[in-house]
Amino acid sequence: MSVHLATQTAGYRGRFAPSPSGPLHFGSLVAAVGSYLQAKSQHGQWLLRIEDIDTPRMQANADSDIMRTLESFGLCWDGPVIYQSQRLDRYQDVFNQLQQQGLLYGCQCSRKAIQAAGGLYNGRCAAKQLTTPPLAWRLRAADVDCHFHDQVFGNQRIDAALAAEDYIVKRRDGLFSYQLVVVIDDQDQQVSEVIRGADLLSMTPRQQHLFQLLGQTAPLYGHLPLAVTAPGQKLSKQNHASALAHWPNHHSLTAALRLLGHAPPDELRQAPVTEILAWATQHWQLAKVPKQLEIRCADFA
To answer: Which residues 6+ apart lie within 8 Å of 281 measured at CB?
Structure first.
């Protein structure tokens, strides 16, 4: 089944797009809170998308667990929840469009070979016109602009070699890549601003470029500091970050706001999450978010 979202005129539209590969952890809560507050402080909509495109990594019932956790923090989304797994036909349509435009080519290079060559793909299959599966399909990305403006960090310049790398839009196993589907989803949901973790900052030029190829205006992008246990070690499901159930909700929410530069006053530290969130919505300013890629937060490892 494919879900193709109806076009509609909208004001501010933000989104939170977790992967259901495990329960929500503190690092994800920071991204959820930041994106929620940016939307609600502007009387906008906050959408929830379940990014379940990478099926081998999904956990049964993780999506409902994530939604229950969000609701327990007062983070209630607007409109229906969108599942990427229900939009495969839509992704294939866009893939076909890009292929017909000559913007894609098949690649037979293994990850091991690419790592051995320095870690960045060098375009060696671009002129081979490969068609026999299994193949990964890459987008010709030579004209990606490595400069962009971030709503938190200001003017950014991504490494030119990374920006120009022909990246995968469909994997050898037939699964569509995050880089493709996130742009299609943001386009179809008319997302006006993306507030997310700084681990995705370097991917922004690729996504802006893909919006241009699809004849669309890219949303604004802002990136939030990552909660880390040590430099370079972000809290994530892959490194077994603890689920939020280990701590009282008011403690976790207060810690997330503190990391985002919006520490609640002392009289609210033990208040219900609805009161803390109401205060944060009233006082939220993106300019107050620390301009740090990482902030140590070992308590939530």
So the answer is: 37, 40, 41
- Mean pLDDT, to the nearest integer, of 56-77? 96
pLDDT given at position 245: 75
pLDDT in tens, 231-266: 766 666 555 456 787 789 999 999 999 999 999 999
C-alpha closest to that of 29 among 249, 272, 182:
249
Do 294 and 194 lie in a common domain?
A: yes
Give all strands (DSSP E) within 108-157, no chain letters. 136-139, 147-150, 154-157
- pLDDT value, residue 91: 98
- pLDDT attached to residue 117: 87
Range of the domain at 123: 102-178
Residues 168 and 226 occupy one common structural domain: no
Report residue 85's pLDDT band, with 50, 70 and 90 as the boundaries. very high
Assign residue 115 the CATH number of its domain: 3.40.50.620
Can you say which residues are annotated as belonging to the binding site for ATP? 237
Place of tokens 């669309």: 216
Residue set of the binding site for L-glutamate: 15-19, 51, 178, 196
Q: Please report, in range form, the residues annotated as the binding site for Zn(2+).
A: 107, 109, 121, 125
Q: Are residues 272 and 128 in the same domain?
A: no
- Annotation: binding site: 15-19, 51, 107, 109, 121, 125, 178, 196, 237
